[in-house]
Amino acid sequence: MCKLSKADFHELKSVEGVGTYTACKIMAAIELGRRRQSAHANIVPDLSSATAIYRYMLPKMQDLKTEEAHVILMNQNRKLIKSVRISQGGITETSVDVRIIIKQAVLCNATIIAFCHNHPSGCITPSRQDDELTKRIKSACDLMRIHFQDHVIVTDEAYYSYHEQGKL
Predict the structure, then answer these.
(1) What does the pLDDT look like over 125-165, one tens digit per residue?
(2) Among residues 3, 22, 78, which one has the least CA distance to residue 45?
(3) How far from the centroid of its chain's Cα atoms is residue 141's Cα?
(4) Predicted structure pTM score
């Protein structure tokens, strides 16, 4: 069986000695843990660093079996306005339309954005497609006079920051 937090109901029930009732209790306990961790993430005063972005996004993105892309919308003081899931995809990729990112930023009067997506494989190394997407987001932000703070790749154990790596 895969990692317990990634297991679904049917995987839990397939374990010898685990019935419907026990599987439900395990699923509920895992969800309560996620919610507790997420509640602490809401206390983050600002998102001015890749580490702060990672800590904020980890509860939303850890243990996912498929890739998701999110945009974090911030005001000029790097205070969170809101985060929005832009897309959800497959095991190795998700489709991202840069226009949707910019639309969300404009609708929320965001002056700063960060883009995040996860790698369910646990590999933090960006792909060529990740690099190309980062360039497209940066160009669109420059055109709209929105500061593109970072593109952070989130895994369960670590993160990759384009800003920290000098690639932004």
Answers:
(1) 999 999 999 999 999 999 999 999 999 999 999 999 999 99
(2) 78
(3) 19
(4) 0.75
